[in-house]
Design goal:
The complex is a heterodimer of chains A (187) and B (168). Chain A is of the alpha+beta class. Chain A contains five helices and six strands; from the N terminus they run αααααββββββ. Chain A is rod-shaped. Chain B is mainly alpha-helical and 168 residues long. Chain B is built from eight helices and no strands. Classes of the chains: A alpha+beta (187), B mainly alpha (168). Chains A and B meet through helix 3 and helix 4 of A and helix 2, helix 3, helix 5 and helix 8 of B.
Chain lengths: 187, 168
């Protein structure tokens, strides 16, 4: 490589110190390289002057740029708040829906409530003195009430079997089971 | 990279864009978009060695997109008006209202787009060959070639100017 070809590396500061010294010795005896360096120095002088004037002319640049960033940040924060609010609302609605469904599944009365609630306060022991199954009167009808197990202590469920007293007074059974039971309850 | 650290590069980005496109308003828009993109990806580039070079690369890509869109617009407009198209950037050192700065427009006026940009990044921003290559997404060899050609053109323009001065 001829020494003139090192001109660009010299201008870019990419030569080693010993190479710089050798190139400078070459420049003293090379009109082509010395005029190139003079032109480069003149160009850099113009660049420095332009930079100084440019720096004065662009001092107001960061402000609109900063405003643009602030505007973007504000939009993003609003979007974040709206998103969080929507998520919370969704969670509340979902929890409410799940809780309602669970209550319905755990509350047998809510699933199948009797059309008329019998007055079980009139319950009386069965003909054979049973304590679990009692005969009750609702209006003019008679029922055999059978307490059922429930999932909560606050709920009482009775199967009410419609009964009929036989005309034959010799029949000691007392009550005849007539039809499908009704489901009744009290909370 | 905090907000302030990104924003402090805004003048450099603006200068680069206005040098490339020659339009203050467009340069401000692109500089803002560049800084905004940098801010959005601030976590990714927190450990970046040279954030300014990275921001300038974003700006260079945005400028390229803008010039491409402008060319398309001009092509469509001239197709309608049947007039010659011109997409060359406006001389912008003239806006500094200084005779010597204005002379820079003449000096760099003969350079190609890549030579102009490479020379700017070297002379104004002081980037290394590697950083210029990253900004423009070209090889280091291509940077050296463009820089060498640009310097020869600049040297010729400056020497012509000197000769004109001496003859006056």
């Amino acid at each position: 490589m001829s020494e003139c070809e090192q001109l660009d590396d010299y201008l870019d500061g990419e030569l080693l110190p010993e190479q710089v010294e050798a190139f400078r010795r070459h420049v003293r005896s090379c009109g082509e390289c010395s005029s190139a360096i003079r032109a480069h120095q003149e160009f850099m002088r113009l660049v420095e002057k332009a930079k100084q004037r440019l720096d004065r002319s662009v001092t107001d640049v960061p402000r609109p740029v900063r405003l643009g960033i602030r505007s973007f940040q504000l939009k993003r924060r609003i979007g974040f708040v709206v998103g969080v609010a929507a998520s919370i609302l969704f969670c509340v609605l979902a929890l409410n829906w799940v809780r309602t469904g669970r209550e319905k599944s755990q509350h047998p009365i809510a699933l199948e409530r009797a059309a008329t609630t019998p007055d079980i306060g009139h319950a009386s022991p069965g003909p054979n003195g049973e304590t679990a199954d009692v005969a009750v009167s609702v209006a003019d009808s008679h029922y055999l009430a059978v307490p059922m197990k429930t999932t909560t202590q606050d709920v009482t469920i009775l199967w009410l079997h419609p009964t009929h007293e036989p005309d034959n007074s010799d029949d000691s059974s007392g009550l005849l089971l007539l039809s499908e039971p009704l489901l009744a309850g009290r909370i | 990279m905090g907000d302030e650290q990104i924003e402090q590069h805004a003048p450099h980005v603006y200068r680069f864009v206005v040098y490339t496109l020659g339009d203050h308003h467009t340069a401000m828009d692109i500089a803002q978009e560049t800084i905004l993109r940098g801010w959005k990806r601030r976590r990714e580039f927190r450990e970046l060695h040279n954030p300014r070079a990275w921001l300038l690369r974003i700006a260079a890509n945005l400028c390229r997109d803008h010039v491409r869109a402008r060319k398309n617009r001009v092509r469509n407009a001239t197709a309608l008006a049947d007039e010659p198209a011109s997409t060359a950037p406006e001389p912008w050192f003239a806006m500094l209202q200084d005779e010597e700065c204005h002379h820079l427009d003449e000096v760099i006026g003969s350079l190609s787009g890549r030579e102009r940009t490479v020379l700017y990044l070297k002379a104004f921003e002081g980037l290394s060959h590697q950083q210029i290559a990253e900004v423009l997404e070209i090889s280091v060899g291509a940077v050296k070639v463009a820089l060498s050609r640009a310097r020869k053109s600049v040297r010729k323009a400056i020497e012509d100017r000197e000769r004109q001065r001496q003859t006056k």
